[in-house]
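Suppose you are handed only these lines of text.
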Amino acid sequence: MRLSFAALLVAVQAFRLGDLQIESSNWPAADSVPSDDDLIKISLDELYSIGNSTKLSDCDKCKHRLLYAKSLALVKPTLIPSIFTEWCIGTNALQKDMCLRIFGRTTVQNSYAGSNFADMVSLMDPISYDGDYYCHYTESACDYVSPPEIDGSELWGGSKPEKSKYAPEAGNETFYVLHVSDFHIENDYVVGGEGNCSVSMCCTPHSFNDDPVPQNYDISSNVFLQDGPGEGWSFYKSSYVDNIFEKGPYVGYNESTWWPATSFGHYNCDAPELLINSTLKAATSLQQQLNLNYEFAIFTGDLVDHDETQYITYESTLLAEESTFRDVKYQLGDIPMFPVLGNHDTFPYGQLAQEKYGFSNKFDWNNELMAELWRDYDWIDFDEEQQVREHYTGFSVKTKRGLKIIALNSNSWYISNLYAFINISQDYDSFGQFQFLVDELLDSESKDERVWLIMHVPAGADMLPVASQVFAQVVERFSPYTIAGIFNGHTHRDEFKVLYSGFNGSNLDAQTAENAIANTWIAPSVTSWIGLNPSFRFLEVDSKTFSVMNAYTYYFNLNETFTNNGTEPEWRLEYDARSAYGVNWPQFAPLNATYWHEVSQKIGSSSSSLQQYENFATRYSPYTYKCSESDNCDTFYCYVSTFTIDQYVKCCEHFGLDSDI
Ligand SMILES: *[C@@H]1O[C@H](CO)[C@@H](O)[C@H](O)[C@H]1NC(C)=O
Ligand SMILES: *[C@@H]1O[C@H](CO)[C@@H](O)[C@H](O)[C@H]1NC(C)=O
Ligand SMILES: *[C@@H]1O[C@H](CO)[C@@H](O)[C@H](O)[C@H]1NC(C)=O
Ligand SMILES: *[C@@H]1O[C@H](CO)[C@@H](O)[C@H](O)[C@H]1NC(C)=O
Ligand SMILES: *[C@@H]1O[C@H](CO)[C@@H](O)[C@H](O)[C@H]1NC(C)=O
Ligand SMILES: *[C@@H]1O[C@H](CO)[C@@H](O)[C@H](O)[C@H]1NC(C)=O
Ligand SMILES: *[C@@H]1O[C@H](CO)[C@@H](O)[C@H](O)[C@H]1NC(C)=O
Ligand SMILES: *[C@@H]1O[C@H](CO)[C@@H](O)[C@H](O)[C@H]1NC(C)=O
Ligand SMILES: *[C@@H]1O[C@H](CO)[C@@H](O)[C@H](O)[C@H]1NC(C)=O
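From them, the structure of the protein bound to 2-acetamido-2-deoxy-beta-D-glucopyranose can be written out as follows.
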């Protein structure tokens, strides 16, 4: 549909709120049809006049720009990216790379979401929660608002759990599952490149530091590289060939870098493929050492690196997805891996459209590629492949022992997915994902099957507040009888969260052992970005109920590989979850929500448990906070003892802390 310019003016006026009138002397006569150049100029003037208004708050200005964009989307959606980019950069509304990421014209050469922004404004209602949340999360212009009360029980027809409100009792046999997360392969990692760069992601061919290194700068003045010359700095270009580590040639480092990148990775960089191979090899070697026989692996998302969006191309996204899964397949052989995609594993970054609005063809390439690849690797069967292809926000698989794994694409509720701001409160299931999830759960409940949920973004971190609330309702309805585990990634930190029934964030007395009904396992990342040691874990799982009996987390000190003359890292057991916090827990009981409630209470009441949590979260890296010396750990109790975004915000308010949401 294309409206005339006169219709645009009518639309603009119609969208204006009565008491928020803005001077618009520069409108041309309504019957003239301006050229694109004129329309760009008129639009910029309009955006500037909104920006210069003394009557509007920053939040209202943001919503007015959305209203303007919405009317423009009816006439000339293709002009929106250039107009908004020019406005954003010209007025320093956001940092330049954010201006480009959100508004820049979408091409295969860079990960800019301008056309997705245009799609979004065409359907959103700026004067509603859509605008509130867009302007909060994307432009930091509006304050956080609590979501409206939404009753998700219509998703399950208001039915109550019929069988039991308890989980089935664990048996006496277990099996093992590998859990890896957040690979973030940096395919253009440069050994010897700048690891102390001026932008967020380093070690690439385009990484540089704005400040030139001083003349005669001695890199061994860097505490991390002090031991280098004697022991041997690890500037080797090495690789695994037929799964055997081969130390490659010494390539040295660039003399004009502050902190050159070494072979196995850097604390300011994502994972070189060498690190990915080392991780997978360590994980599979444990099988022989400990007689584990992983029955399957789960991967909770993020293959693509964190480089600036201008350097992420369609091709590099494909390469990251394909090369990482290929390396996994090589190592795991016949062990199937059940994966979900993360917020980085799409193009442009973070975007995923609802099927019903007709934009989903922009993203079909990804689910089609994944469906084919995972089927080729024998991770999913024919029917599952069809599901991945068609319902790309979710699919389910059944393991050979009868555990159902429901995999959800969490971009549908991710705070940087522009499509997720459409009709946020009125149509909370616009992706159809919650209905899919609930239908799967109802089916499992009726068959007494137990279910694991895997998804990238956890409910209480970077998830939009409305979806977070609805998701918690679904989890509560089906826990603990049907849902036996929830597994996430995304934060890179090794974390967990507890869901309490009857808890709203403020009534902390509802955080009791009896009310604890579900918990999430947020897995540590393989990537060391940022300031973390690489990590993975395996789970010990009850064969009868699929409840998690224990989790063994492995890591190595990345800093030790900087000066070990390029030899392989020494992976070691970091901790096992059952003994780590000294909770007195029955030997045959699973590490369920009640267990994590006990841990959470310890974290809230003992400074040594709080420090222990931070040590695990970061895997004892050189950047691990000393909780007693800073306020960096103050929000951790609220983090682990809440499930939704809003509960977390309210818990922080309760303690007078900044939730930073
Ligand atoms: C105010 O208007 C001037 C001139 O139109 C423009 O250059 C400036 O960017 C505007 N300020 C904002 C915050 O939009
Ligand atoms: C495990 O449980 C089964 C069924 O409850 C029982 O028959 C078996 O003897 C038990 N095995 C061991 C080693 O305790
Ligand atoms: C070394 O780094 C400098 C500064 O980042 C860069 O200009 C130069 O091209 C690099 N040299 C090599 C050989 O990579
Ligand atoms: C470091 O490795 C190189 C090449 O692998 C080897 O020649 C050298 O002897 C090693 N240096 C030390 C101190 O081990
Ligand atoms: C990683 O392993 C894969 C599969 O064996 C291999 O093709 C690739 O070259 C390896 N890369 C490195 C850097 O070790
Ligand atoms: C990183 O670079 C800054 C200059 O931008 C310098 O002051 C600092 O010492 C460097 N740190 C390391 C560890 O190289
Ligand atoms: C928003 O949701 C409501 C309720 O489901 C629906 O009536 C309306 O058409 C939706 N708006 C859009 C733009 O899809
Ligand atoms: C967790 O296990 C303990 C011990 O078996 C049990 O008392 C508790 O009810 C369980 N909690 C949940 C949420 O299943
Ligand atoms: C690496 O860091 C750990 C703590 O994070 C420290 O204990 C260790 O001494 C460091 N090792 C080297 C070789 O720098």
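What can we learn from it? The chain is about 30% helix and 10% strand. The longest strand covers residues 535-542.
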